């Protein structure tokens, strides 16, 4: 069987009337059935829409030869043409359906009611589907193509075509359910198979072929020959001619709409390079920002390392310099007329009023080094500390810190018989990481 595309090319190149007539014969039932649904069963208006669609196909034959699925384009064109005709004529009363004018009827009363609820909304729902889903439905249920042929038309395997049809049927079922039309997907498939396409009345194909060729520029003789051999009454011929006149208006509006769409797409395409360039610039800026953040993080690490090294060097320098860094320690000469008392001989022991905490060098803290220094000193009768010095220590690095701190302590002086006296004392200064109050834990004895 010759492909639709080959027939369209033959008509576009050679104005082959047999090729065009074959296309009409193949698809007239699909187009007429869709038009009949959309015109509420009005056979005359359905014929008019059918002629409009095929006339449009004749004019666009060269372009349509490249369309992958001709039935999909025909259904869409029928939907647009019917809408335009309804807008032009306004609301019309339904004509009585002539007995026998539609090919198939449902076999049960329930099925008939279901189809009558589906029919008015079917084509609008079909046109809300995506293009590939609409093509699958139209090829399978409206063109009665087997799955192998559906797959060939859509450039997929037979199994992929079967899955595509099932998914598209599910989407169509959901769209109809949204309009309050409830049925199973299987029932919907059965209704489409039984009612999707009705045979066009006798003579519609011939009349449509003649009307389309006449309006599209075919020879007048062909139109006269077809009309004389046709069994249609004269009134139908007049309707065909009027339909041709209506097509000019519809096609002008459609062409204008397509021109506007193409212009909008052109503007969008022109904006793409600028948007691409901007995206690339933003990506470069983002990468530079990430690089700078990484550099900042590395710099912070280096700064912390330098600070730690400086603190360690400072601690090591203090340890090596002995008492050179110790500030001047107050000295008190102990004589017979100015003795110092042991704390056990006092009536009232010295009480600290301020105690400076010893410095725990950060480098020693970080290294986890702990230690203890025993500091010997005299609390003068004035409450100040004199003669402070380290007696012994577990870590020499702590001695300077402990002596400096104790030298700055102050006390309420000890008393004997109500008189303030000098008091000899010793205090251990403990440096430990285990004590939350470090640096500098003191124990008196």
What number of structural domains do the residues give? 2
Secondary structure tally, helices: 15
The radius of gyration is 52 Å
Helix content: 55-70%
Plain-language structure description:
The chain has 445 residues and is α+β, with helices and mostly antiparallel strands. The protein has two domains: 4-267, no CATH class; 340-442, TolA/TonB C-terminal domain (2-Layer Sandwich), CATH 3.30.2420. Helix content is 61%, strand content 10%. Strands 1, 3, 4, 8 and 9 form a five-stranded mixed beta sheet that branches. Strands 2-5 form a two-stranded antiparallel ribbon. The chain has a two-stranded antiparallel sheet with strand order 6-7. Helix 1 (4-14) crosses helix 2 (17-38) and helix 8 (147-154) packs across helix 9 (158-178). The longest helix has 87 residues, at 234-320. It starts with a helix and ends with a strand. The model is unreliable at 92-110, 219-242, 244-250, 322-326 and 436-445 (pLDDT under 50).
Short account of what is shown:
The chain has 445 residues and is of the alpha+beta class. It is 61% helix and 10% strand. It folds into two domains: 264 residues, no CATH class; 103 residues, TonB (TolA/TonB C-terminal domain, 2-Layer Sandwich), CATH 3.30.2420.
Pick out its properties.
two-stranded antiparallel sheet, single chain, TolA/TonB C-terminal domain, 2 domains, 445 residues
